Amino acid sequence: MSFIVYDLVFLGIFLILIAAFLYKKRKNIKKESGLLLYKTHWGIKFINHVGKKYKKTLRVLSYISVGLGYLLMVGILWLFYTIVKIYLLRPDVVAQIKVPPIMPLIPYIDKVVPFLPPFYFTYWIVILAIIAISHEFSHGIFMRRYNIKIKSTGFGFFPFFLPIFLAAFVEQDEKSMVKSKNFEQRAVLGAGTFANVITAILFFVVLWGFFSASFAPTGVAFDDYAYTAVNISTITMINGLAVFNPSQEQLAELAKDAAFNNITAGEQKFIAIAGFVGKEHVLLYHDLPAIKTGINGPIMEINNQKITSVEELGEELDKYSPGGIIIIKTKGKEKTQEYEIVLGENPEDPEKAWLGIGFKNKESSGLMGKIFAALASFKKPNVYYESEIGEFGWFIYYLLWWLILISISVALVNMLPMGIVDGGRFFYLTVLAITKSEKTAKKSFKWLTYFFLFLLLLIMIFWAYALIF
User: Fold this and answer.
1) Which of 87, 92, 280, 398 has the most CB atoms less than 10 A away?
2) In DSSP terms, which residues pair with 83 in a beta bridge?
3) Sequence spans of domains, the chain
4) Using CB atoms within 10 A of its CB, is residue 57 exposed (0-12), middle (13-18) or buried (19+)?
5) Which DSSP string corresponds to 165-228?
């Protein structure tokens, strides 16, 4: 039985239990801000204990909480600026984005955004619980450190369609919060994101340890074939037809009727067009055995010699000369595939054999790109790994992967300086501390909130326009 079946069974059981809980506790459920809130005093003893016992430690951590809050605010502003710039200035890129720029994180979002790993309902509820509880309890602990009264703790639920657990909360006494010193309030507000960052770091260590213990390199994963960028003006023949300084459109037209073409550029022979670079250059695949044979899947063995790294692959191929015959085994979707290959000749070194596989240069750009790269930093580039404990290993791996990513995302988004998140009040208190003017702080807070709401609406409009037109 696949994990999806187990996941859907768990979803059904979970919904039944939540519905039964809400019915049983219906007298204690209150509707506020569009959510069903179940208020209790669960966890307050723990919050009081930690907040009072470790006062000196929490005082030191307050400075880290506030400092980290400013770093995260700068990070989300830069990320927001980058996103707005893309949506406003790059309609060609936006047109390729099939999902709206603002959408909730929901189970099975990987079915909508294909490059993401599986995101089961089980992941969603476990991660939501860990992040929400740690975030809110951290707020509560810092509240008690500074003698801010806590009215209640509890959980929030969607009031429509499906009664799914949404978030935990710690409700402070607003009058007590406002009476606290400006720095203390900022420390409390930054505590939630501080907890999210600590969660991300902790589970990154867990992910690194789990991956090291449970996964082993078993092959080399290539994602392209060897190609070269050449000047279009050097192409003299394609599919037996002589051409003179052809345009990109002419090349594409001549090549569209066949998977492989005979292309001559200068003194070199090529087999297919990989793409275009600017207006003057074209990417051409070399006439080599890998593309002609259609090798697919991670390379596991060459002539019964196991391959577990790009270095080992190169060393093994160096043992052969052009024209040498090798047997390559690759990992297929259902079974191992085997290919008999006659090695080609390297045009830069005729005595060196060339298989003709390629690796795309996946540079990490932008803040989220660097986060994605960090999450895979303990993996060797272009190496294919297999779980030594079966599919369960991948299930746990992706659970930890998502937990780290969402922890960082929540920390960033929560420090956006607008009214609906902690970053809004954090920004207000910062302006108040600098200007000593409540009027200036309120105006800055109000207009910045409106400004970000306007930008969010704007990128939604530009996304819809690029998608339609």
Assistant:
1) 87
2) none
3) 3-216+387-468
4) exposed
5) EEEEEEEE-HHHHHHS-HHHHHHHHHHHHHHHHHHHHHHHHHHHHHHHHHEEEEEE---EE-EE
Runs of H (alpha helix) within 215-293: 248-255, 289-293
Give dist(CA 438, CA 226) in Å, integer.
Answer: 63
Looking at the DSSP bridge assignments, the partners of residue 30 are: 37
Assigned token pair, 180: 């606290």
pTM (two decimals): 0.85
Q: Which amino acid is at 130?
A: I
The Cα 104–Cα 90 span in angstroms is: 24
- Distances in whole angstroms, Cα of residue 213 to Cα of each of 201, 373, 382, 389: 19, 21, 20, 10
pLDDT single digits (tens) 143-173: 999 999 998 888 877 665 555 556 778 888 8
Q: How far apart are CA 80 and CA 86, in angstroms?
A: 10
pLDDT tens across 387-411, in order?
999 989 999 999 999 999 999 999 9
Distance in angstroms (rounded) separating the CA atoms of residues 442 and 428: 7
Spatial contact of 249 and 232, defined as CB atoms under 8 Å apart: no
Contact 88, 372 (CB under 8 A): no
